[in-house]
Every structure is written in structure tokens, then in C-alpha cells.
Amino acid sequence: MVLLSIILATLAAGIGSVWVADWLLRAGLGRPQEGGVGPQHLLSLAAGALLATAFMHLLPEAFESAAGPQALFATLLLGVVFFFLLDKAELWHHGHEHAAGAHDHGDGHDHSGGHAHSHGHAHAAPGQRLGGWSVITGDSVHCFGDGVLIASAFVADMRLGLVAALSVLAHEVPHHMGDLVVLRQTSASRNVAVLKVSLAGAVTALGGVLGYFLVERLEFALPYFLVVASSSFVYVALADLIPQLQKRLSARQTAHQVLWLFAGMALVMLVSELAHLH
């Protein structure tokens, strides 16, 4: 039952987030719109969901175990530093990739500027083409890790697993929207781009299955897996999502950001409560 739940949840989080992202793009919700739902709102929602999952569910569950608080806090610290180094490596890689591409234009302009999200999500300007397979590879590695984290949460508690899967889905949607925009520049059609990103998302299930058997055999390490998952969620929210929200906005736009942030937190709480009642 637990393994089946992990497979279903990882497929929903991995592939479902791609389909939601594509639907939002087709509906025009990913474009900046005054008074409408745009990227800032989706990023706020995702950040709120990740922070609520980490601080209200994963960490409390880990600290209820027999593991010592000092060891768990050390794991949390090392986890944040690990994801920081992973991010730096990704930025360094894409920086060299973009610099190499700049020499190919030969038009006297600097095309080396680029921005890479954490965990291999690279976004490009509309006129800039990145290697589609490099985006897919980065996505696949990240999705595999998401699957392991979701499996760890399910092994600890079914409700925790549902909340973790929801949080992964929430923060993957805005990232997959960027991936689809990038791949649309290199793919023959929108459907081909969706298929490629969906295949990367399906790797989440592979990570979930492997994580299930790994965590089952290393049950003593389960609290540490939960803390690593928390460090991933906290880092993505604070280092990747929230900095994109740090823009000079009107009081009304800022209020909308905060409301969507709290909406993400409330959504996680609601799903947790419904799962608990069920």
C-alpha cells in the first residue's frame, strides 16, 4: 500500500506538475498581467507551500524520533550548504555554457548573460537558445531526488507523504513553466516540449521506488532523510523562489504576494488536515 501510494504520488508530482504548467501557459497565466495571476503569484504560492512543509511537518516529524537534536540540526546545516554548493556548480556550468555560446553569434554583442535556477532549472531569454537535452538532464536529476524525498516522507507517515508530494508539485509548476518556454525554442512543437519535460518528470517515480527500498533498509536514518528533505525545501524557497519576489512593487502588489504566500501555507495545512481525517 505504501509503495503504491509512493508511485501514484510521485507520478502526480512529477508529471502532473508539467501538465499543470503547460495548462497555465496555454491559458496565459504565466505572462505578467496587471490584476491577473502571474509568475509572482505562483512563486509566492510555491514558496509558502515549501516552507510550511519543512517547518510544520518534516522537521517536527524528524525531531519526534530518537535522534539527537544536535545531530539533526547539523544535518539540516550540512543539507543547506550542500544544496548551495550544488547551485553554485550549476551556475558555473551554465555560465561556461553561455560564454561558449556567445562566441558563436559573432555580432559584437554580449550574449553570455544567463540565469539558472537551483537544481538544474535553466531559463533563457526569448531569443536565447539553450541545449534542450541539458535542461532535460538537469530536470531528471532533480526529479529523481524529489522522488527519494517523497518516499522518505511516505515511509514516515502517509499524511506526511501527501503533504511532501503536494509541496513538490507546487514548486515544480513555476520551474516547469520556464523549462517549457526554453524547450519550445528548440522543439518542433509545443507537444514535443511537453513530452520531453514529462519524461523528465516521470523520473520522480523511479526515485520514489528506489527511495522506498533504500529507506526501508535504513530505517534508523529516516529522521535524517526527513531533515535533508527539509533543507532542500527551505533552500529552494529562500534561495531560489523568494529572491525572485524581491522587487520594488506597489503596496497592492506586495499585499498580493503575501496573500499568495500564506495561501501556499494554508493549502499545505488543509491537505494535511484532510489526510489526517481520512
Q: Give the percentage of residues in beta strands.
A: under 5%
Radius of gyration: 19 Å
- Assign the structural class, choosing from mainly alpha, mainly beta, alpha/beta, alpha+beta, or little secondary structure: mainly alpha
| Biggest sheet overview | 2 strands, antiparallel
Number of domain units: 1
Strand/helix succession: HHHEEHHHHH
Principal-axes shape call: globular
Low-confidence runs of at least 5 consecutive residues:
103-131
**Widest beta sheet: strand line-up:** 1-2
Count of beta strands: 2
Report helical residue fraction. over 70%
**What value does the average pLDDT take?**
76
Count of runs of 4 or more consecutive helical residues: 8
Measure the end-to-end span: 15 Å
Descriptive account of the structure:
The chain has one domain (2-25, 58-99, 115-246). It has a two-stranded antiparallel sheet with strand order 1-2. The chain starts with a helix and ends with a helix. Helix content is 77%, strand content 2%. Strand 1 (115-117) and strand 2 (121-123) form a beta hairpin. The chain has helices at residues 2-26, 39-63, 69-102, 132-156, 158-184, 190-217, 222-245, 251-277, and strands at residues 115-117, 121-123. It contains eight helices and two strands. It is mostly helical. Helix 1 runs antiparallel to helix 6 (190-217).
